[in-house]
């Protein structure tokens, strides 16, 4: 249901270039949790960005339920990103002028129910699940880093994405919050038979994955 074939990414800077992804192939089933580990600079973030439609690869194909992500125009890719893919990054990247509720509902602009009540109720539910029931109307700058991260996780889940791409989602959270977030992600995975692809340095988390893959100098092993 989620496949990448022969992915290549070359960065050019000045007269130099670096091959950050070299012939990366991966196929992930529904309901599967794949952990990606690897040293800093091995290409993990580049891989997630290309898989999620944020950065165009130099070569190769990304298929999400048979839709060829990089063959679409910007609009088509934005639709896929907002309806089928949930991103959780190291940095929360919330919109500062929207409340928590507004940030979580933002991807709903791309789903048929838009900003209707059903979606608002769902957003409230998700914020409750990440422990922010009392912060619905707070703005990002009123939240701690850990809280902002949890808002971003709720936002990533609002459209029941079939692929969740997570880059160190619990990186700087305390153990208790980390456990709650992992529980939420894995429950979501089972309920919606989604796919979870997570970059992590945490070997305890990696051990809970169905598969652990290692990135090494742009190659996936
Ligand atoms: P990781 O996430 O595993 O730390 P990255 O995907 O960030 O690895 O980086 C892979 C390689 O590509 C590294 O050598 C990094 O320096 C290089 N790189 C990443 N982003 C850029 C960029 N925007 N321009 C040039 N080189 C980059
Ligand atoms: P964490 O353990 O998640 O890092 P903090 O110690 O940063 O939490 O924050 C503790 C409390 O202070 C939280 O309830 C948070 O909402 C509040 N808080 C943190 N930063 C701010 C801020 N800039 N403005 C208002 N409230 C804040």
UniProtKB/TrEMBL annotation:
GO terms for molecular function: ATP binding; ATP hydrolysis activity; transmembrane transporter activity. PROSITE patterns: ABC_TRANSPORTER_1, ABC_TRANSPORTER_2. CDD domains: ABC_MJ0796_LolCDE_FtsE. Keywords: ATP-binding, Membrane, Nucleotide-binding, Transmembrane, Transmembrane helix, Transport. It comes from the Bacteria. Residues 2-221 form the ABC transporter domain. It holds the Pfam family ABC_tran. Belongs to the ABC transporter superfamily. Macrolide exporter (TC 3.A.1.122) family. This is ABC transporter.
